[in-house]
Amino acid sequence: MASKGVSLKVKGKSSASKSKGSSSSSSSDEKSMCKALKDWSNWGLKKAKVIAHYGFIPLVIIIGMNSEPKPSLSQLLSPV
Amino acid sequence: MAAPTSFNTTKPTVETKEKVDYFNLPCPIPYEEMHREALMSLKPEVFEGMRFDFTKGINQKFALSHSVFMGPTEIPSQSSETIKIPTAHYEFGANYLDPKLMLLGRVLTDGRVNARVKCDLSDNLILKANAQLTSEPHMSHCMVNFDYKGKDYRSQFQLGNGALFGANYIQSVTPNLSLGGEVFWAGQHRKSGVGYAARYSTDKMVATGQVASTGIVALSYVQKVSEKVSLASDFMYNYMSRDVTASFGYDYILRQCRLRGKIDSNGCVTSFLEERLNMGLNFILSAEIDHRKKDYKFGFGLTVGE
């Protein structure tokens, strides 16, 4: 009886591990997809940070120079 | 000859109180600006050293600013002594102000960029972003806010770097009273918090109170004594760290100058004077005397331009 229980348990375990194995492959797929998504978003955020760091002030200047009434370049550079 | 008509007919001297229309309440002040009168009066930007700001307007909407600062800067130290390092920097800034879009950028000589964006996506939805970017890794901060303004309420959703999420909501309950609450969640530090705030304002006074689960209780009261004078007091209590601070200050807005001063329960006396010497020329004097730490800070500066 005990052995039967044990064998059943073992069978149960193997079937469970088998199902886990199949689900783990799909979950590992999901995990790798999540990881890839995280890596891509990190890369994107890093690039966005560098772009904002170097490009924000030039962007403000370009938008300002194109606003009405259009100022000239000498007005931008002269201290008066 | 006709008798002269009398102009002043006797008016009833009793003021009839207008019935409060609870469906037509005014829009409340934004949640983060709830303490703004107290903050303006009690926390002027005191500095130590020399400051020179020059703002050059190129256009109605576009302006460049140049700013020079020379003076000691405090660095945080573990001991009770204050450590100051003399620093000097030049800051270049560009501002673009449109009714619908505001862009503010500042860059310092050490490469730090301070950027602020405010964009009106629609009549009621406003996007605000604030970022401090440095070349050092992991030292940059960014915060993005989405504000929605309803008829008599405002709500805001905040996103910050380091998985910081926050939301707040404030509602006008009567024409003078508005109540609000906020929640935030900081992923990196695994902290979350809830807070409540209330603001009661009339023509002559503003009283605000704020409680947060981070342990802060902050109360403030500002009384407008006259057109030129207002007095403010502030009380802050942190029940986690048992830290109490009370301060009392005044704010004189006169024709040619603005003088603000305050005294603190930490033994700190502050005074800040902005004097308008001429059109577009302002002279600034700042003084902060900390009797307890024996730290004396005096600064002067000049601001040219609007």
Automatic annotation (TrEMBL), chain A:
Biased composition (Low complexity): 1-27
One BP annotation, GO: protein import into mitochondrial matrix
Descriptive protein name: Mitochondrial import receptor subunit TOM7
PANTHER family (UniProt xref): MITOCHONDRIAL IMPORT RECEPTOR SUBUNIT TOM7 (PTHR34944:SF2)
Keyword set, alphabetical order: Membrane, Mitochondrion, Mitochondrion outer membrane, Protein transport, Receptor, Transmembrane, Transmembrane helix, Transport
Lineage start: Eukaryota, Viridiplantae, Streptophyta, Embryophyta, Tracheophyta
Subcellular location: Mitochondrion outer membrane
Recorded family membership: Belongs to the Tom7 family.
Organism: Dillenia turbinata
GO CC terms: mitochondrial outer membrane translocase complex
Topology in the lipid bilayer: Single-pass membrane protein
Stretches the record annotates as Disordered: 1-31
From TrEMBL, chain B:
Signal peptide: none
InterPro entries according to UniProt: Porin_dom_sf, Porin_Euk/Tom40, Tom40
Classification via Pfam families: Porin_3
Entry keyword annotation includes Transport: yes
Keywords associated with the record: Acetylation, Ion transport, Membrane, Mitochondrion, Mitochondrion outer membrane, Porin, Protein transport, Transmembrane, Transmembrane beta strand, Transport
Main location: mitochondrion
GO MF term list: porin activity; protein transmembrane transporter activity
Highest taxon listed in the record's lineage: Eukaryota
Topological category with respect to the lipid bilayer: Multi-pass membrane protein
GO biological process, one term: protein import into mitochondrial matrix
Entry GO CC: mitochondrial outer membrane; pore complex
Location of this chain's protein in the cell: Mitochondrion outer membrane
Gene3D superfamilies: Porin (2.40.160.10)
PANTHER family, per the entry: MITOCHONDRIAL IMPORT RECEPTOR SUBUNIT TOM40
Similarity field: Belongs to the Tom40 family.
Function comment: Central component of the receptor complex responsible for the recognition and translocation of cytosolically synthesized mitochondrial preproteins. Together with TOM22 functions as the transit peptide receptor at the surface of the mitochondrion outer membrane and facilitates the movement of preproteins into the translocation pore. Directly involved in the pore formation.
Protein's name in the database: Eukaryotic porin/Tom40
